[in-house]
Amino acid sequence: MYNLRRNALVCTLCAAAVLAAPLAYAVAGIETAPPEAVERVSPPWQQGANNDAPERGLSFTEPDADNLADFHGDPIHSALALYVGGNYFFAMAPLVHAFEARYPQYKGHVYWETLPPGLLVKQMESAGVVTVGNMTWTVAPDVYLAGLKTVQREIDAGLLQAPAVPYVTNTLTIMVPKNNPAHVERLADLGEPGVRLAMPNPAFEGVARQIKASLENAGGDALVKEVYDTKVNDGSTTLTRIHHRQTPLWIMQGKADAGITWRSEALFQEQAGHPVAHVDIPAANNTIAIYAGALVKGALHVQASRRWLDFIRSPEAQSVFEHYGFTPLQPNAGMSAS
């Protein structure tokens, strides 16, 4: 069902911003920051490390105005295209490098996207066509990776080919600014009227289901409604569109006091030296995510796809995941994510 004219660039106009960070923002009580500090805390954060293209030509990325933070590599010459739920965008570069070390023929030819799983499904349904700002291009996926339940649902819907391949687990945490000025100590604190939240949008971010389950465990339906209804209506909860980038960005800009993310996302921000921290959620209220992948029906690069799905469970890949706080898949693991 996908457009076999894969990788054709429909429009080559300059790329506009995926996320735009203002030049003035608040971090730990500082009202403004110099441009180099703005660049440091603006997506895509890895300063080009998450790009598999060896020949990059003109390098033009303005973090506060023009960047394509969730699109990686060369869309024209790819030999493997991965649609990856954005929960571990930060782990993809080392994963791809390890994959290419095993299979050198793919070096410089892996393309990947790290949008929320629901948006990636919409792109699949649009034959791989995507538009960001003034640029439209087409890359039909070979492999789709998200939460196990989501992957199985898309297998049942006919977009993916069985089997689903699970490979790692994750848990939730509360991301807060460094020093936690709002004194958020537990999930119930998110319902307090004065606490401003950045929360994943239930419309297309599957993690919202897991977050609602954890909120219900901690405070019943009343806490869920307070966070996702009352506070959305009064403006103290802002719903994200790319939660794995917007939550920390809004926290660093002083727009939010807290937000629930996957634990790995908070650890990445802390490892990057950004002024954020996290508050652990007790196991009784937490949610275990199971990540999985599957071959896309009609994939152009079947052999490469099967190699990736085999690699993702390898010791090399598991070591990368563990660095960011993921846990190897255990038998009888709990709920699936996304």
TrEMBL record:
Record flagged with keyword Signal: yes
UniProt cross-references to InterPro entries, sorted A to Z: ModA/WtpA
GO molecular function, one term: molybdate ion binding
UniProt keyword terms in alphabetical order: Signal
Gene3D superfamilies: Periplasmic binding protein-like II
UniProt name for this protein: ABC transporter substrate-binding protein
GO biological process entries: molybdate ion transport
N-terminal signal peptide: 1-26
Region feature Disordered, mapped onto this chain: 41-60
Domain of life: Bacteria
Keyword Transmembrane: no
